[in-house]
Amino acid sequence: MKLAYYPGCVAQESGKELDLATRWVCRALGIELVDFPNFSCCGSGFIDEANSILNVAMNARNLAIAERAGLELLTVCSTCQGMLTLANRRLEEPAVKAKVDSALTQIGVQYRGTTPVRHLLQVLTETVGAEAIRKRVRRPLTGLKVGAFYGCHLLRPAAEMRSESAEDPHSFEDLISALGATPVMYRGRVMCCGFPILFVKEATANRIAGHQIEDAKAHGAHAMATPCPLCHISLDSFQNQAAKSVGQELDMPIFHLPQLVGLALGATPEELGLPRHLVSTDSALQRIGQVAVPT
Amino acid sequence: MEAEFVKAPIEVYRYDPGTDRAPRYDRFELELAPHTPVLTALLKIRSDLDPSLTMRYSCRSSICGSCAMVINSKSRLACQTPVGPELERHGRIVIDPMRNMPVLRDLVVEMGGFWGNYRKLEPHLVENPDRPLPEGKTSSMSPEEVDRFKETPRCIACGACYSACPAVEHDAEFPGPMSLAKLYRFVVDPRDGAHRERLLKIQTGGLWLCMRCHLCTEACPKDVRPSERIRDLKEMAIRLQGATEHGSKHAIGFKDNIREKGVLNEFKLVRQTYNSLEMLAQVPQGLKIRRKKPELTQTPKAIEGLAEVEKLYQILDDEPGDSP
Amino acid sequence: MHRHDVVVVGAGLAGQRAALAAVEAGRDVAIVSKLHPLRSHSGAAQGGINAAVGAEDSVDTHIYDTVKGSDYLGDQDAIEFFCREAGPTVVEMEHFGTIFSRGSDGNLARRPFGGQGFPRTIYAADRTGLALLQALYERLGTESFTLYEEWDLTRIVVQDRRVQGIVAFDRRHGDFAGIAAKSVVVATGPAGRIYGRTTNAHSCTGDGIAAAYHAGAQLKDMEFVQFHPTALLESGILITEGARGEGGILKNVGGERFMSRYAPHVLDLASRDVVSRAIWTEVKEGRGFPGGYVHLELMHLGRERIESRLQEICDFCRNFAGVDPVTEPIPIMPGQHYMMGGIGTNIRGETNIAGLFAAGEAACVSIHGANRLGGNSLLETLVFGKQAGNAAAAYSDRAAPTDISEEVVEGESRAVHAMTDRKEGEEPQHLRTEMQATMDELVGIYRQPQELLEAQRRIGALKLRFASVRVVDRSSVYNINLTDALETGHMIDLAEVIVAGAIARTESRGAHARVDFPKRDDANWMKHTLARFTPDGPELSYAPVAFTRWEPKERVY
Predict the structure, then answer these.
(1) Phi, psi (degrees; rounded to nearest 5) at B105
(2) Which residues touch B130 (CB under 8 Å, ≥6 apart)?
(3) Partner residue facing B105 (CB), from C94, C106, C477
(4) Going by DSSP bridges, is the β-strand pair A145-148/C446-447 parallel, antiparallel, or unpaired?
(5) Which residues neighbour C370 within 8 Å (Cβ) at sequence distance 6 or greater?
(6) CB of B99 closer than 8 Å to CB of B70
(7) Taking Cα atoms as reference points, which of C199, B315, C467 lies closest to residue A106?
(8) Active site residue C228
(9) pLDDT in tens, B211-236
């Protein structure tokens, strides 16, 4: 399988560990990633708010790059997945298409709308398949209870995303089970992490993140995993603030999706960039025998 | 038209603050045809098993908005939710009162806050001096103007979006999706003369607290798609006023940021949103993150083909015209 | 005790319009409603609102169509006034902000409706009631008035043939209160839930009509009950006449467009009573689908037209019948839809009791006579809501202060609590179900003398049983079981009036079709039925119909 790899901004910058883990897992599973140094940012929902047509045009350009190469687009971020898919949908409206086309023509780009956008979670569960992954597991994550945290834009708006049930998704839990871990079901798994308003009203954003982590913890999660690096910022990089806002210690290791897969497939914590997390993942690693229990 | 009956275990939240110490769930077993609406099931419970089960309902045809409740953890109308798919997916039907509103009794919630947030936005037509209502005649509206209402006239104010919204849950300043969808309806109404004032007021009135999680859009039984109308309001507010506070500064800052390298300059974005004092407050957390993630303060490399992105900005942002 | 100049009971279109008129007249106004105003059943009206504003149309034609539609039982002076007010009313509502459907020229769109010579029904997709309700609520919200939200009316207090106010209780705490008022406007809508198979909301239980009846108001023409031809099978949810206005057609099991035999000229768009009887006859004579229903077909209109003009209908069919009207026929049967009768009023909304006014479906002016035309009811709520509000305001301006004594309030509270204190007795919902079955079975589209007498016997027995009704729920907080009981009591009283009027009227006119008297009998029955409450049951009398320009003719469509 060969895919146009769209890492998104964060995975190339402060969330570099996501990129490391993605490449490791794809290598292990025989998925060939093709890099395109000319991909731009997806707009992250912010450009959409400031100038929606510009946002669609930027993503039409991204989609056209993969289209020219005849490849499906692979994302590793719920928000990138959402923005690129939304662009595909909005370009089904003739008025939007006309406007965007006229701008694209001026930069010599043609958008035909034939590029499916797929998130790594979807590729792993739909194309590779949870069962196939189960067979590749070298170090089952037995005993680890993991709360999946989907990230809004992977699922919603459902009419545009057209993937699994936005209300009761299960692909991530299926994958977690395939890795040998135990999925934890909790309300927060399909909720918002607060990231979009981290810069608008940090206290509220932190409270929301804290609330979701608390929820996972109350349902027995030892760790959480997310397919979205922006959720990872809220849940990991700002977990200390989130903990303060809900008035309790959280100590919740937060894995990027491919990190969890990588661990089960045999990668070392270093290969997956786990030491880069703000909240130590050691407590989770101990449960699966990856690091010695400190005496 | 004949349907087989299925066993339907239904668990209903019960709480009478006057007499009960704590809420409980009562379990009822019914035999129902799969297409039976949850409302019909609840009415059956009321008539055959427990007449004290308390709820709001009226039209049973998803137009009065009375019977919004949480069914298997999703906010929706009981009259519009058939039991079959719920049973298939969950094996049972768990019914709770709407969230984000205090419970009066069982499934009845106090909606005063919800209506208050709506009224606060002054939801009524204000005459437009530039386009006065014709004396003794109805006004005219072009098909394009009519289209701009989108699906907002369908709103039945049931509260499902309000119940589903995490911003409502966590921040009292947020007026809620329904109020904002209503506000949108006035902002695009050519007969209304207060578009400007409405947008100016909402910029600092909680508009930017929407996290675009789209849970409201999923909850809405009438396909009003509030999250998209909130997005539209944000863009209109920015076009009218530019960057005024954190939300719009951040959106505009983000847009300008990407123009420079094609990808995000994370550190710079912080500076584009916060003033120097606010920056200072971010320093300790920033340092903590940078210790693990040094890229945070590094300037990223520009993408190849940045000139193409620049050109798109020139065409669509410097001279934007009307957004379709 | 609370005190206001004008108390409006009911917050649908008629109630809100009355309140707005009274507020604009400078009066201290309160609205008492068991539902939040936006939850009112007015919002469920789908098809549209009539106004002869088209170039080819005329107010006179609208008047004529309404007179003919009423089977000549409508008061022609009232109808003339009503139709003349249509244009200004629509303009006013448009200026309040109603989002109507429009044509490509930017003007309000119009669709054809049953029994009318021109397309004069102005609409907002298929949610016209909702559009009007929203706009009126928004407009009224700019004024100052008191809203008693989710209060249940138990009594209209009348002393010496003059209104004193009402007694009601706050559902949230169960506390009874007297609300003194110089004028009381009843705008509580219909009592459609007297029937089981009805398009009406669960809340349409005739509370205000029953309270007015007990207070001494005369009820008019109650035997005239409209059955809408197209109610969704099973749920009884309304499928708007607009569906046929847009070109929908009715077919029987043989695929025959059977309306060509009943109304060869206007086919599916004949008057509602005519179409309902036709469907009933088809099914009765074995030409219905198994289970007893016919089809309404829209498929030939095409997806785009169906989904844009009949958006709610699409949702209803898909959600409540599992049928997609774009690709499949809709299974329908007639269902109770509208009460032509109600509290007797004149053109100003005045009743036979000083200070008591009524408007909307709770009232009977009468403009609908024996059968209402589609698109006239929304118009009625606004035209006569405003009339009643103005009259109530004017009356309160000259009336002496009123009072409700503590004893009266306590008496009401005791009477109601007797139901919750009872250890044994039948539960209200069971009595309600029996009443509905009785009315469905015996007082439907076609009426037979023996069946009506049987209905009278059963309703009489229910009335006796209701005297010892027991409310199981004893909570003081939001006790809707208590509301069930009150509503059931109201409906049993009104059912009794409907049946009495139907037994007495030995003719067929409009919606009242007597099998034993299949013809209209103008010599003996060109008159309104009036019913007055007595402890022994309704006392009937009759009043003349007002004529201006239109002589009775046979009604052919």
Answers:
(1) -170, 135
(2) B193
(3) C477
(4) unpaired
(5) C70, C71, C72, C73, C221, C224, C273, C340, C509, C510, C511, C512
(6) yes
(7) B315
(8) yes
(9) 999 999 999 999 999 999 999 999 99
C368 is catalytic: no
Which of A122, A108, A103 lies closest to A54, judged by CA? A103
Can chain B be said to touch chain C, i.e. do they have 3 or more Cβ pairs within 8 angstroms? yes
Backbone angles phi, psi at C333, to 5 degrees: -145, 155
DSSP secondary structure, B115-173, as one string: HHHHHHT--S--B-TTSPPPTTS-----HHHHHTTTTGGG----SHHHHH-HHHHH-TT
| CA dist., res. C31 & res. B69, Å (int) | 27
Q: How far is CA A81 from CA A198, A216, B150, C464, in A?
A: 20, 24, 25, 68
Q: Which two tokens stand for residue C186?
A: 């009843």
CB contact under 8 A, B124 and C139: yes
For the whole prediction, is pTM greater than 0.95?
yes
The C-alpha atoms of residue C488 and residue C480 are separated, in whole angstroms, by 12
Listed residue (B174, C210, B70, B63) closest to A201, CA to CA: B174
> How is residue C479 written in tokens?
């006790």
Residue C218 DSSP code = P
Instruction: Tally DSSP H helices, then E strands, for chain C.
Output: 16, 21
CB C8 within 8 A of CB C22: yes
Chain A residues with CB-CB distance to B293 below 8 A: 14-16, 237, 276
Compare all CA atoms of chain B with the CA of A108 and give the residue at the minimum distance. Answer: B308
SS3 breakdown of chain C: % helix, strand, coil, rounded to 5?
40, 20, 40
Check: CB of residue C115 under 8 Å from CB of residue C272. Answer: yes
Name the amino acid, one letter, at C342. G
Closest by CA to A100, choosing from A140, A60, A158, is A60
- E runs forming strands in C206-347: 219-220, 225-232, 249-251, 294-297, 330-339, 342-344
User: Which tokens go with A270?
Assistant: 């270093």
Residue with tokens 């996290």: B211
Q: Which residues in chain C touch residue B183, judged by CB atoms under 8 angstroms apart? A: none
**Set of chain A residues whose Cβ sits within 8 Å of the Cβ of B215:** 152, 156, 191-192
Structure tokens at A109: 């780009």
A179 half-sphere exposure, CB direction, 13 A CA radius: 30
Å from B258 to nearest chain C CA? 40
B292 vs B306: CA distance, rounded Å: 30
Verify cis geometry, omega within 30 degrees of 0, for the bond prior to C366: yes
**Any residues with CB less than 8 A from the CB of A33 and at least 6 apart, and which?**
A3, A5, A22, A23, A26, A74
Tell me the two tokens of residue A265.
Answer: 């497939």
Question: Burial of C537 by CB count in 10 Å (0-12 exposed, 13-18 middle, 19+ buried)?
Answer: middle
As to burial, measured by CB atoms within 10 angstroms (0-12 exposed, 13-18 middle, 19+ buried), residue C414 is: exposed
The first and second tokens of residue A54, run together, are 């510009």
Query: Which residue in this structure is represented by tokens 């039409």?
Result: A60
Contact B14, B53 (CB under 8 A): yes
Alpha carbon C57 to its chain centroid, in Å, reads 27
Mean pLDDT by 10 residues, chain C (557 residues): 97 98 98 98 96 93 97 98 98 98 96 90 96 98 98 97 97 96 98 97 98 98 97 92 95 97 94 94 96 96 94 89 94 97 98 98 98 96 98 97 97 95 94 98 97 98 97 96 97 98 98 98 98 97 97 90
- Tokens linked to B250: 């951040």
Tokens at C108, concatenated: 């309000």
Question: What is the rounded distance in angstroms from the CA atom of residue B123 to the CA atom of residue B189?
Answer: 12
